[in-house]
Specification:
The chain is α+β, with helices and mostly antiparallel strands. 30% of the residues lie in helices and 24% in strands. A hairpin with a 2-residue loop joins strand 13 and strand 14. Helix 16 packs across helix 19 and helix 18 crosses helix 19.
Length: 794
């Protein structure tokens, strides 16, 4: 423990935060490099966190600021691109035009005007703290990735607001950077993306497989998701609440999470938790009486708009018999060519009353029809005040009231538990304010115009509304009174399915269809993690999970999580392997594979032979979502016990034959590959085998890469330019008579700088199944083995 404080520039105290300047903070570091910021104002808290954040993430965030400003083509080349937040690569030029079109000075002004004085101070302080670190750090001590680079520049207050605006549209417009940034009318471009045929010529399947369709599926199909448990007094050892926060987010880029603890005593704010890079308030966390987490919700935060164009011009559309002009937005960016020259690039993009135009190979902009996107979160100006208010809540009741105040949580459900033993599930997320009459009536184009969008809605949940009449218009978001929630004293959970089934005997029904459409609608098949989550609670309360007792506590909740159980395998594989081993048509390799799967323990444990083989078979079978794979199909009246048993075993065996003929599984040894053999994170100080399964409750999804002929691993950078996603920030929180008792970690560490001691320290703990204490009280913070203090002021 290091108790001496480092005092920087006029700071008035020895690490107690008792400073008079509005830009003053005490940064107390604990194990893992986690900063606990203590200040007398939110401006000071933002200042302290901005400094601590820049210390560990300077280059990563400096690059993101280039993205936000629409300057990537200038600094990183007009021919290059980058890996976006959902794993899609975007070109720098298209990205720059996207950001210049949507994240404007006007949007910044509106966000600032809507913000409280506390939030304004927080964001200006954050920028000042970031700049303080940049200003005070000698060039020789800056990280190699950005030292001396022309794009490493001070952060402005406007940049801070741009990041908040970007965060709000993460699960909506941000999925379509290329499709919005490149959208051009057919008369203005000869791009290969532009088709002259009407878009209705495409089939529903073509729309699903198009770039926009793929982006929609990434947003809607849990590729970025989370688990959350709120366990109440009826099921815990101590009669208090117990929370698991387990977001599954990318390990790269701006969706990385970062730990922080902000204490502003004068404002009754004291929250420890984690946030997205550049968002200077905890999104997930805990205070003295309440703990909460978030999971990606099923809400349709946006709708696509089908526009019937005026035959006289592809930049005009017909609405209620009148021709309406789109708004032309001429934009110019700078781009660096291969020879190093910087050239201006001009493009005119178009917006409508609904929002910007977008297009791809199926959602085309023809001479007769085109598409716009209407995003409710583009006018979400209260996100930061929502986070601030949530952090001040002291019970699940007050948290629900806080969430309903602004309705500004942009894309998440809330799962919470409090010290009194109550739990909450609430979906107070933003959803497009579309009525059931609009969604189920004539507003979804279908046979009337020869379009497949009604079929697309049923099969995928994607909402395309007609822009041809004001009767199909919507404004704002679904109000709090129409949102689903439940408070319980046993438990609640969510794993990115809809609100429908938050606890074993609770079903929330009758809510607006726009909240959960298509496969995510009420009463539909739940994902593997949802059923696993309920089964884990059932087995714990029955005492049949192999652990002592019949209630939850912090330690056994950790054990339940890391078991990495695969419930669908438990329910489907026995019948399949029996049929496989009895088949006279199965090859010797397939029979060997079935023996491996029969003997497998049905978990994605690191030493489990069969886990990788089943993971690939599961993906090949469409994650067993089709009812035809099951002997007893899903029954919404019995969601816990259905589906079960295997059907169509011959078709499944054919898929297995394909797998065992591939170079990944063409030997007995390869078929017995364990997760610890192939889930690899490359680090200079030694590679790390990463726990978790791609489709299991305890989740890690590395990118499959063939590193040598027939040698596959599941990894992340630097072996591949694709990223990994899954377990990120994990927290377990309960209470005793003295206050919160919390453990957890950030799986990829606090720092994105490979030279930092906090780059992979927590990853090694995660791999070893260890957890950090998450200190909250002054005594806990000062007693931490990693304690040190830096006081700053200006």
């Amino acid at each position: 423990m290091i108790s001496a404080a480092v005092l920087l520039s006029g700071c008035l105290g020895g690490g107690d935060g008792g400073v008079a300047s509005p830009l003053a903070a005490s940064i107390r570091y604990t194990t893992g490099g986690v900063p606990h910021i203590k200040a007398d104002s939110f401006a000071g808290a933002g200042y302290g966190y901005g400094y601590a954040f820049a210390k560990e993430n300077l280059c990563l965030y400096a690059e993101e600021l280039v993205t936000l400003r629409g300057e990537r083509a200038q600094y990183f080349g007009m021919a290059n691109g980058y890996l976006g937040q959902f794993g899609t690569t975007f070109g720098n030029v298209d990205s720059d035009f996207f950001y210049r079109l949507l994240l404007t000075a006007d949007q910044v002004a509106k966000t600032k005007a809507a913000a409280s004085t506390q939030v304004q101070g927080l964001l200006s302080g954050f920028a000042a703290g970031y700049n303080r670190y940049l200003r005070d750090t000698p060039a020789a001590q800056l990280p190699a990735a950005c030292a001396g680079k022309p794009w490493l520049r001070p952060m402005t207050e406007s940049d801070a607001y741009l990041r908040v605006l970007q965060a709000a549209i993460t699960a909506s417009s941000l999925g379509f950077i290329g499709e919005i940034g490149s959208a051009q009318p057919p008369t203005a471009s000869k791009s290969a993306k532009v088709a002259t045929a009407a878009p209705v010529a495409a089939t529903s399947a073509a729309y699903e497989s198009s770039p926009i369709g793929q982006a929609l599926s990434k947003i809607r199909e849990h590729e970025v998701g989370s688990n959350g448990y709120g366990l109440g007094s009826d099921v815990t050892d101590n009669g208090r609440g117990l929370l698991l926060a387990n977001p599954h987010f990318p390990w790269w880029g701006v969706l990385r999470l970062n730990q922080l603890h902000l204490t502003v005593a004068n404002e009754n704010y004291d929250v420890n938790g984690a946030t997205l890079l550049g968002v200077p308030l905890p999104l997930i966390g805990f205070n003295s009486k309440l703990a909460w987490t978030h999971t990606l919700s099923t809400d349709n935060r946006f709708t696509l708009r089908y526009l019937a164009l005026d035959p006289a011009s592809p930049t005009r559309y017909i609405k209620d018999g009148q021709s309406v002009a789109m708004t032309a937005v001429p934009l110019t960016i700078n781009g660096t060519a291969a020879d190093g020259s910087v050239v201006p690039i001009t493009r005119t993009l178009y917006t409508t009353e609904y929002g910007p135009m977008l297009m791809d190979s199926s959602f085309t902009w023809s001479t007769s029809a085109a598409f716009a996107i209407q995003d409710a979160n583009l006018s979400n100006y209260k996100l930061m005040d929502q986070l601030l208010l949530n952090g001040k809540a002291d019970s699940v009741d007050s948290l629900r009231q806080a969430s309903a105040t602004y309705m500004a949580l942009p894309w998440v459900n809330t799962v919470a538990a409090d010290s009194a033993g109550q739990t909450l599930f609430a979906n107070y997320s933003v959803a497009a304010n579309v009525s059931d009459a609009q969604l189920l009536g004539g507003c979804v184009p279908g046979a009337s115009v020869g379009a497949p969008f009604d079929a697309l809605l049923a099969s995928t949940g994607v909402v395309v509304l007609s822009g041809t009449t004001a009767a199909c218009d919507w404004r704002g978001a679904v109000p709090a009174a129409d949102r689903p929630w439940v408070k319980r004293s046993d438990y609640v959970l969510n794993t990115n399915d809809s609100h429908w089934w938050p606890s074993l005997d609770t079903f929330l029904t009758g809510f607006r269809k726009i909240i959960a459409t298509g496969p995510n609608a009420e009463g539909q098949l739940q994902n593997n993690r949802t059923q696993t989550g309920h089964a884990q609670v059932q087995d714990r309360l029955a005492g049949t999970d192999g652990l002592a007792g019949k209630r939850f506590n912090l330690a056994n909740l950790q054990q339940v999580l890391v078991k990495t159980r695969f419930l669908r395998a438990e329910r489907w594989l026995p019948d399949f392997t029996t049929a496989c081993l009895a088949s006279t048509n199965a090859s010797a390799a397939a029979r060997d594979a079935c023996t491996v799967l029969q003997d497998w323990d049905k978990t994605h444990g690191m030493s489990s032979q069969g886990a990788i083989l089943f993971q690939e078979l599961y993906l090949a079978l469409g994650e067993l979502n089709a009812q035809s794979w099951w002997a007893v199909p899903f029954d919404p009246a019995n969601p816990m016990t259905t589906p079960r048993g295997a059907a169509n075993t011959a078709a499944a065996l054919a898929q297995l034959e394909t797998l065992v003929a591939s170079t990944q599984f063409d030997t007995p040894q390869k078929r017995r590959t364990r997760p610890q053999d192939v889930q690899i994170l490359v680090r200079a100080d030694g590679n790390i085998a990463v726990p978790g399964g791609a489709k299991t409750f305890y989740n890690w999804n590395g990118q499959k890469t063939e590193v040598a002929p027939g040698n596959f691993i599941y990894t992340a950078d630097p072996l591949t330019q694709a990223g990994a996603a899954g377990n990120s920030y994990i927290q377990f929180v309960t209470w005793d008579s003295a206050g919160p008792v919390a453990e957890g970690l950030l799986t990829y560490g606090q720092s994105s700088n490979p030279a930092s001691p906090f780059y992979s320290d927590q990853t090694r703990k995660y791999a070893a199944g260890q957890w950090n204490k998450l200190p909250y009280t002054e005594a806990q913070i000062k007693a931490d083995a990693g304690y040190s203090v830096v006081d700053i002021a200006e």
